[in-house]
Fold these 2 entries.
Entry 1:
Amino acid sequence: MLELRGLTKRYGATVAVDDLTCVFEPGRVTGFLGPNGAGKTTTMLLALGLQRATAGWARVGGRSYADLPTPMREVGALLDAQAIHPNRSGRAHLSALAASNRLPGRRVGEVLERVGLDAVAGRRAGTYSLGMKQRLGIAAALLGDPGILLLDEPINGLDPNGIAWARGLLRELAAEGRTVILSSHLMSEMELTADHLVVIGRGRLIADTSLASFLAGALPPQVLVRAETPTPAFVAALRSAGAEVRVDPDEALLVSGLDAGRVGRIAFAERMVLTELTPRRGSLEEVFMSVTAEAVEFSGARIVAEPRSAMPGETVAHTFGGRR
Ligand SMILES: Nc1ncnc2c1ncn2[C@@H]1O[C@H](COP(=O)(O)OP(=O)(O)OP(=O)(O)O)[C@@H](O)[C@H]1O
């Protein structure tokens, strides 16, 4: 478990992390999300003792990182896959890490196999593709068999097979009871991988919630409706019940603001024969953009707005004030 309490980091006038309080729980993949400059990397650096907090603290299983006797056995991190000596082989890179952290040498072979690099472990790491470097970075994070994994953009550069592999690995690591913290801007992948989300904007907590609640909570319900012969009266009845209705060129209706049951009852009252009635939820990308729209907005290179607040019924910083 990784716990942050009132964690704050200022760089001069910039507040990179602002009074952040949350707990990253074991046994699940937590997506750590936020727009560019939201403070994700800084939070990870603070948790790893690589930056000093201005206020508040981060604790790993109740202790600060600096107090951990063998940190790599507690926390494995991937911050920058390119940070490797190009003339060392993948195996030599991991062996050096294992030796300097008093980890058994047999772990090197184990993690190389787990990330699928065993066949190229003798090659100079400088010749690795970005995807291979990401795998090597994940191997390094796993070297101490840690309970917590902090992975900053670990799937950048992976091809579709690599991404599917990484998804399986991360889910497996969580199922083994580890705390898996994953930051990525690849929302479609995050949607498939994460169980839980911590969303920050401009250093502040916006949402700390399950993926399912995040997806369900932020956008009004939408229903895709196809009727055999949709009549203007049906559309008018939907609108007078409060729905926004968009009629597609193929005559499908996209109904916002009413759930499928309500749309079905209106269709029944209007003697419509429906051939489709499909509830649609927002994608993670849509909900993320909606929730963070006011958190960080760039005008040129300038951040201009304050964070919007969080989701209903969850551990949150504020009350959700989105478009509901
Ligand atoms: N060493 C530093 N000195 C000054 N400002 C910094 C430093 N590191 C980060 N910042 C600033 O702190 C804020 C948070 O940056 P951080 O890199 O943590 O965000 P992020 O969420 O990881 O962004 P991205 O998604 O773009 O990687 C930004 O405004 C950034 O410019």
Note: The first strand starts at residue 2 and ends at 11.
Entry 2:
Amino acid sequence: MKTFAEFGLEPKVLQAITELGFEEATPIQEQSIPLALTGSDLIGQAQTGTGKTAAFGIPLISKINREDEKILALIMAPTRELAIQVSEEIGKLSRFKGLRSLAIYGGQDIGRQIRGLKKKPQIIIGTPGRLLDHINRKTIRLDDVQTVVLDEADEMLDMGFMEDIQTILKLVPVERQTMLFSATMPPNIQRLAQQFLNNPQHVSVIPKQISAPLIDQAYVEVPERQKFEALSRLIDMESPELAIVFGRTKRRVDELAEALQKRGYSADGLHGDLSQNQRDAVMRKFRDGSIDVLVATDVAARGLDVSGVTHVINFDLPQDPESYVHRIGRTGRAGKEGTAWSFVTPREIDHLHLIERVTRHRITRKPLPTMAEAIEGKQRVTAERLLEVVESGELNEYKGISIQLLEQYDSVQLLSAAMKLLTGDKKDSAIELTPEDPIRAKRRGGKNDIRSGRKPNGGYGGNRGTSGGSGSGGGYRGNRDNNGGGSRGGYSSGGSNYGSGSGGYGGGYKGNRDGAPAARDGGANRSAERKPYTRPSSTSTRPAKREDFDN
Ligand SMILES: Nc1ncnc2c1ncn2[C@@H]1O[C@H](COP(=O)(O)OP(=O)(O)OP(=O)(O)O)[C@@H](O)[C@H]1O
Ligand SMILES: [Mg+2]
């Protein structure tokens, strides 16, 4: 392990790194930083929570002069929350150097962003849609950009941002450094890389498993209708410090958050139909611990870094293995341990096996927590809370009444009553969630899948590309879209090299995704939010809708 001092960084950047508490570079940082400092293009892949942000952030910051008043670096990220978070980390890393950075994302008042831009930030961190908005309004010019980073590049492609990214990158001088980072690198990323990177160096830190090593992964088989009961028992049994519960759709998230609140949990929901103010408020509450369960769609799956997340619970299995890897990667970050649980309905067992195959990790089957375990867990937490108060010692006001009570009642009985009160059982409230259809497993090539990016063995394409019409679609990814019709290349490329002949990312791609291409980014003039959620009918070709993407 290297210390940051060994990279020859300027003192002000080193000071910021020290201030952040980073002592040694993580493996991806150790490999990327020296390469990136030479100006080389880079494709960086490393497990979730291993410091990719600083891996591109530190070299990017090192290149910029404080006196410059132009936009010199552009970082793109798939979701608003991630753009905000990356911008905060960049802000911290460049603090002592005195650089200016600004987050640009949909849903925020554009006037405010324009005012921010007038302060001449050198670094812009944004979601593609809103960035384009500014470009079209001429409030952002990219003529001087020297460094471009695509964080979670594969997700941005998956969300249908290819066109936007292409448009944006064409406005950036060719003479630039481009870096692309993610924990997963599906082969389709090669297409983007070929187009926009110049002789990129691949830096990958991927051991046998792609998911982070410190995450304990388990699943319980549970029928759809018992999931909520299972969830509340699980939370009681495990008493997470902070937990993220992933639901498949926005409606699911709303219902779940409400149900949890009804049962007395401190929970709230996050998805793309909330206003940006609501989204910000929920994230703030979760980060400061005033709620301890965040219920979210996949909008929270990528990149989010909240310390104290001890548990990730897949209330609904994600459609793709990549998403599984990213979701569970919200815990077990920066060397900490974490636990991931997945609820699997009997009909989804095949899908779970697919996830295991692709991630090359056995997920341990565990029994549904029993009522007794749940009660025990809750009582343990209550007892801990009680003892904390005992230790705090400020109890004099209560001693008089306690002595009186003890004269009349048995001490065990009294304490038990206090415990009962504190434990606050609200089990009686009846909870009914609208059932979700099970996710169906798709066939998918077995080799190298999400960890590849190097070996073009056509794994994704091979046995799947048969149903999709125009040659290359219809594969795993293609089916996920409501009406993919084979028009997008997805992962499959007819069983040969990535990028060859897949031809799927053209015009139809975005439209196919959600039928409202311009609405995704919620830019001011891009219609504030997307169409209302409609439940996919069971006859839909899109078996289970991943949340409408939003950013
Ligand atoms: N060298 C380091 N030492 C200690 N902590 C670090 C170091 N580098 C980064 N971190 C911290 O580790 C956490 C995870 O970093 P980061 O969010 O960059 O991970 P990531 O690799 O981008 O994960 P993901 O794939 O989920 O996006 C952050 O809280 C970050 O501040
Ligand atoms: Mg990241």
Note: The first strand starts at residue 42 and ends at 46.
